[in-house]
Specification:
five-stranded parallel β-sheet; three-stranded antiparallel β-sheet; Rossmann fold; about 220 residues; about 50% helix
């Protein structure tokens, strides 16, 4: 059984790699954001409690998040393993997760950390452009449109840069990621289960390293 935690900074390609990982291993990718949206949509007791905090502009408390994770891990598709995406985000959450898994007679088997230098991340994100009409994504350096400012997919001239894709905001997000993730990775490193993966290269090359990190 592979119970995995997967971390990666914004723009590192973690989403793409996670999709390949869950497809190869036939296990679900579980994010607290998806869980929270599902509970709110379905109007569950947990979802209603979470909504009360959100309506007040407050963060959903850790104990409520853990209860949602507990509920999700009890689903049939997670019995042979799972990939926790971006959770736990803090050491207290990691401790609570350990306690939850211990009650289930389980534990985390690997913590995968996708590593990409900040300068690469900035270049990837700042150069990104999206089409307002069809959602197609381009990059001004790596995959520019055939005609400057014109979408290859739908012909629209509505290519734009997202407001949070500026260098200043990207660096703030990277700082927040490093601040939040480093203590969690250190917590799990004490058990020797953290594996850092070089995230620079093409998709298949990075995935090959990711797969190897699960075997050692």
């Amino acid at each position: 059984m592979s119970n995995l935690i997967f971390f990666g900074p914004p723009g590192a390609g973690k989403g793409t790699q996670a999709k390949k990982l869950v497809a190869q291993m036939d296990i679900p990718q579980i994010s607290t954001g998806d869980i929270l949206r599902a509970h709110r949509r379905e109007g569950t007791a947990l979802g209603k409690k979470a909504q009360e905090f959100m309506d007040q502009g407050l963060l959903v408390p850790d104990d409520l998040v853990i209860d949602m994770v507990d509920d999700r891990l009890g689903k049939a598709d997670a019995q042979n393993g799972y990939v926790l995406d971006g959770f736990p985000r803090t050491v207290p959450q990691a401790v609570a997760l350990d306690e939850l898994l211990a009650k289930r007679g389980s534990s985390i088997s690997r913590v995968l950390v996708l590593k990409v230098p900040d300068e690469n991340i900035v270049a990837r994100i700042v150069g990104r452009r999206m089409c307002k009409e069809c959602g197609a994504v381009f990059h001004m350096e790596f995959s520019p449109p055939a005609v400057d400012g014109v979408c290859d997919s739908c012909g629209s001239s509505a290519l734009y840069q997202r407001a949070d894709d500026t260098e200043e905001k990207v660096r703030v997000r990277l700082t927040e990621y490093a601040h939040n993730t480093a203590p969690v990775a250190a917590y799990y490193a004490q058990r020797g289960i953290v594996r850092e993966i070089d995230g620079v290269g093409d998709i298949d090359e990075v995935f090959s390293r990711l797969s190897a990190a699960l075997e050692d």
